[in-house]
Amino acid sequence: MMAGAKSAPASSTETSVSPAASHITVLLHEAVDALNVRADGVYVDGTFGRGGHSRLILSRLGSQGRLIALDRDLAAIAHAKSISDTRFNIAHAHFSGMTEVLAELGVEAVDGILLDLGISSPQIDEGERGFSFRFDGPLDMRMDQSRGKTAAEWLATISEKQLVEVIRDYGEERFAKQVARAIVKEREDGHAITTTGQLAKIVAGAIHKVEPGQNPATRTFQALRIFVNQELEELSLVLPDCLRLLRERGRLAVISFHSLEDRIVKRFIQSEMDRDNLPAGLPVRAKDIPQPRLISVGKATKPSQAEVSANVRSRSAVLRVAERTSVQ
Ligand SMILES: C[S@@+](CC[C@H](N)C(=O)[O-])C[C@H]1O[C@@H](n2cnc3c(N)ncnc32)[C@H](O)[C@@H]1O
């Protein structure tokens, strides 16, 4: 589903960037600076959210520039439709489908791609979305509520073994077995788990040693969210697509919020850096023809102390940037 906006603003500047409603954009300037925005370039924001990064990118584009934004959340799409700018398109899509979205718009190559992973504050803070143990609401957790199974539907059918794996691998929860057992027992006792409050209570009852300052349900909720939204699969799929889509010297900037995501990004960039070019002294075969690859730009960037103080949700953010090389 695509929405192109109508009229272009006469001109826009950084000072005219309006704050993203109810979501404080993390590493705003660091991420957009990293893209090296060219006035006439074509850019992709794969995670529009409330548009904080998108608005800053737009403010740096000239009249020939272009920004294509994606989000899998319909509330984000509704918000994006308030941007009236002919240089801007928004698509309701998963970023793993970025190539198809761009193809539909006649775009084959871009100058920069931004991914600000994870969930937005409105998603967490609206109890109805079912992401948070802080509010009682339906146990949904889908970023894209137009498709897929809710967390409640998964919990009704998932095997205990798979549940242990999800909670252990995606939540890094050392009491994964106990939590999974408690969830399955609830099911066996004939009680469907349909609300966040119910799940938080079951998890709290299964964990006997709580980390200081952390709600016992934190890790289980993170695990289910990652699983329901296939977040790591999405990321693994989109990274090679980004490399294919970037023009020479085009930049990829990714902000991760936990070590599972960051590890995937870091390893992908590292594997690109380690990829051999032409083997010296050997006859050239088709598969040996040098391919463009990514090289890391600078070190990983974390939010400043001032940013973390102003927005505690930024505390675990890590920005990694890579640039596409030439084929030479
Ligand atoms: C952290 S927020 C982005 C905030 C945004 N940069 C801003 O400044 O307002 C992440 C957004 O990415 C979206 N998202 C996460 N994974 C996605 C995926 N695989 N495909 C498309 N959108 C995704 C979420 O729905 C959410 O709106």
Summed up:
It is built from 13 helices and 8 strands. It has about 325 residues and is of the alpha/beta class. It has 2 domains: about 1-120 and about 230-325, 3-Layer(aba) Sandwich (Rossmann fold); about 145-230, Orthogonal Bundle (DNA polymerase, domain 1), CATH 1.10.150.
Describe this structure in words.
- With 328 residues, the chain is an alpha/beta fold.
- It has 2 domains: 2-121 and 231-324, Rossmann fold (3-Layer(aba) Sandwich); 145-228, DNA polymerase, domain 1 (Orthogonal Bundle).
- The protein is built from 13 helices and 8 strands.
- It has an 8-stranded mixed beta sheet, with helices on both faces.
- Strand 2 (42-45), helix 2 and strand 3 (66-71) form a beta-alpha-beta unit.
- Helix 7 (160-171) packs antiparallel against helix 8 (176-188).
- The relative contact order is 0.13.
- The site of S-adenosylmethionine has 22 residues, from helix 2 and strand 3.
H/E series: EHEHEHEHEHHHHHHHEHEHE
Overall pLDDT metric: 90
- How much of the sequence lies in strands comes to 5-15%
Approximate helicity band: 25-40%
Low-confidence stretches: 1-21
Q: Could you tell me the radius of gyration in angstroms?
A: 21 Å
Question: From the coordinates shown, what is the CATH architecture of the largest domain?
Answer: 3-Layer(aba) Sandwich
Task: Provide a count of the helices.
Answer: 13
Ions and ligands? S-adenosylmethionine
Q: Structural class of the helix and strand makeup?
A: alpha/beta
In the CATH hierarchy, what is the class of the largest domain? Alpha Beta
List the strand order in the largest sheet: 1-4-3-2-5-6-8-7
**Superfamily (CATH H level) name of the largest domain:** Vaccinia Virus protein VP39
